Amino acid sequence: MSVLLETTLGDLVIDLEVEACPKTCENFLKLCKVYYYNLNAFFNVSKDFLAQAGDPSATGTGGESIWSLLDPQSSNARYFPPEIRPKLKHTSKGTVSMAVAPALEGHTAGGCGSQFFVTLADNIDYLDGKHTVFGHVVEGLDTLDKLNDVFVDKDGRPFKDIRIRHVVILDDPFPDPPELAKIQPPSSPTRAPDNSTRIAEDEDPLATLPEEEEERIRREKAAAASALTLEMVGDLPFANVRPPENVLFVCKLNPVTRDEDLELIFSRFGTIMSCQVIRDKRTGDSLQYAFIEFDRREDAEQAYFKMQNVLVDDRRIWVDLYLSPSPFALMRADVRPAHSPWQE
């Protein structure tokens, strides 16, 4: 009598001890049948010890038996007594046992519900006589090796989500209770029962981005930090401010280039509303960059494509159409002009 657990790390085939532990195996099989374990997380993994699952809340405090689901009104159906058999021990890796919960407030006794664990090493005799051994992994020991090597937090939960994707019942000798059809969903769930914030199974936290993409992200972060600083000192109304799309930022100017020179050069692309070379407020010297505001965005775009790296007064200028926050770092209170084209 077997079940197949399809996990995010690989498959596990479990042979069940249906004769030695009939109630435990029936509970496990019927929970599998109603998709109770589908998308459950392995929420507790201890290296060379065990990996625990079967709690939909992934907290270690949830879970219930199939009889509790069939009879929600019963106050003592959440757990059932553990079937501990002295001959069944945790001698080999891949031993499957039920976790035993303590008695809860309002309940006469604790016992087994839905939580189970799989041992990740041989001869863990500490667990003998304390938990119900009801199965053994017969295929998928390599999956257990992968599970044993995962990185976990201080509470033992893997940083990367490891879940039971699906359960396939290969053989079930127990007849279904009449009430089972009433609680069985029409299909397997598509959303995990717990609200996990873990690394997704298809996400690689060690993956590296292309160099160009890393540089773009670095520039964006630096620009955002500069904008936030300028917001704090009052140079920007808010950090995410963005100038109009009809404004060109021109830099690498020759210090001798004047406002009227730039306006004459760029006016062939359309009507210019404002053209200003930024100068030091105290000395009046050019800071070698300027802002040009066109009447239409299309004119600004044309100027952007045509004037990049063009010689102006023996200097190759640089033109940027959509101004990022970083140039604002140049616009401190002692050098910004009385009026800028992005100010209302």
The third-level CATH topology of the largest domain is Cyclophilin
The SS-based structural class is alpha+beta
Count of β-strands: 14
Number of helices: 7
CATH homologous superfamily placement of the largest domain: Cyclophilin-like
Residue ranges: pLDDT <50 for 5 or more in a row?
323-344
Q: How do the helices and strands follow one another from N- to C-terminus?
A: EEHEEHEEEHEHHEHEEHEEE
Global outline: elongated
Work out the strand percent: 15-25%
Number of domains: 2
Q: What summary fits the major beta sheet?
A: 8 strands, antiparallel
Q: Supply the CATH class of the largest domain.
A: Mainly Beta
Describe this structure in words.
The protein has 344 residues and is of the alpha+beta class. It folds into two domains: 2-183, Cyclophilin; 211-330, 2-Layer Sandwich (Alpha-Beta Plaits), CATH 3.30.70. The chain has helices at 22-33, 66-70, 141-148, 180-183, 211-233, 259-266, 297-307, and strands at 2-7, 10-16, 44-46, 50-53, 95-101, 111-119, 132-139, 164-169, 247-251, 272-279, 286-294, 311-312, 315-316, 318-320. The strands form three sheets. It has an eight-stranded antiparallel sheet with strand order 3-4-6-5-7-2-1-8. Mean pLDDT is 85; it is low at 323-344.
Short structural summary:
Residues 189-198 have a biased composition (Polar residues). The chain has helices at residues 22-33, 66-70, 141-148, 180-183, 211-233, 259-266, 297-307, and strands at 2-7, 10-16, 44-46, 50-53, 95-101, 111-119, 132-139, 164-169, 247-251, 272-279, 286-294, 311-312, 315-316, 318-320.
